[in-house]
Design goal:
heterodimer, A: alpha+beta, 3-stranded antiparallel beta sheet, 6 helices, B: mainly alpha, globular
């Protein structure tokens, strides 16, 4: 069981935060998406979503591009190669943990 | 947080799930059917179908703008785009071939109707099945059943039924029913699309 705890502790907290995990998961299923879509998906306020996107951009997981839609500023977001690899590894890690936890027995 | 499968499902099919985008096509089809039914001969004024086409294109533009400003934009991967183009082209060719068969031969069923009915099932399998929503399943079953039944009316013994309701041919009846199905399902799909989001419009 110690191994599972160690593996859980090793999860990347930058990615594992629910809002950021939702954002990265969505971006991994498309080429790119805009701010309004991510806001609809996560239910975050403009300030919160901007904060999460900034953190992800600083970590080099996403790149953003500012545009105007109907005279309003809008941010287009897409995963970088690092980001795509990171989110894929993260989900694989979570699935492995889930599998380990299900297979765990009391005498281990 | 929503389930990751749901997030991926929504993201991958985002544009296709925006149901109201099908409304202008249904409206255009219905108007053209009515125009063909109530006009005849060389005196037909082509200004009407052209106006219908332009009006539908304008309506589509407005609906697409509404989705873009209220629900945002997702650009699919190259592979997703290719699949969409391929399936649209295939559906268009099948529809055209069926239309040519229907106007060339006097068959006891409508090939166009059968293609539309098959299209309902294909669309469900490709787009909606993974959404695991019973609403989409019912929508597919009702649309499929309705269009299929109307398509094989002559086989069921309901010959010339369309004349009783003022339509000149079986093909026009099939197209009219299909257009009404398209109009209703577009609104239905929009309501389902909106239901997919747990949050109201962000401030």
């Amino acid at each position: 069981m110690t191994k599972v705890f160690e593996e859980m502790a090793a999860l990347d907290r930058l990615i594992h935060e629910p809002a950021r995990l939702s954002i990265l998961t969505a971006l991994s299923a498309c080429k790119r998406a805009d701010f309004i879509f991510l806001q609809r998906l996560t239910g975050l306020t403009v300030g919160n979503l901007s904060g999460h996107l900034s953190k992800l951009e600083e970590a080099g997981l996403i790149r953003t591009e500012k545009q105007f839609v109907a005279k309003r500023p809008n941010t287009i977001t897409e995963l970088t190669n690092n980001g795509r690899e990171a989110i894929e590894n993260h989900w694989n890690h979570l699935e492995a943990l889930h599998k380990d936890a299900r297979e765990w027995k009391l005498d281990q | 947080m929503q389930y990751p499968q749901h997030i991926q499902y929504l993201t991958q099919r985002y544009s296709r799930l925006q149901g109201l985008k099908g409304f202008p096509l249904g409206l255009l089809l219905l108007l053209v059917v009515l125009w063909v039914n109530f006009t005849s001969g060389p005196s037909r004024n082509l200004a009407f179908p052209i106006a219908f086409g332009l009006g539908s294109a304008g309506l589509y533009w407005l609906i697409a703008r509404y989705y873009r400003t209220h629900y945002g934009r997702v650009e699919g991967t190259l592979q997703q785009k290719r699949t969409d183009y391929f399936s649209s082209a295939l559906a268009g060719l099948a529809g055209l071939a069926a239309f040519i068969i229907d106007i060339s031969y006097a068959l006891p069923f409508s090939t166009v109707g059968l293609v539309f009915a098959a299209g309902c099932v294909m669309e469900y399998m490709r787009l909606y099945r993974l959404g695991r929503s019973p609403y989409y399943l019912w929508q597919m079953l009702i649309s499929f059943g309705l269009i299929l039944t109307v398509s094989i009316f002559p086989l069921l013994g309901a010959k010339d039924l369309w004349l009783d309701i003022g339509l000149r041919s079986h093909l026009l009846l099939v197209l009219a029913v299909t257009s009404i199905v398209l109009l209703i399902t577009s609104v239905w799909e929009h309501l389902n699309f909106v239901r997919q989001f747990p949050f109201k419009e962000p401030k």
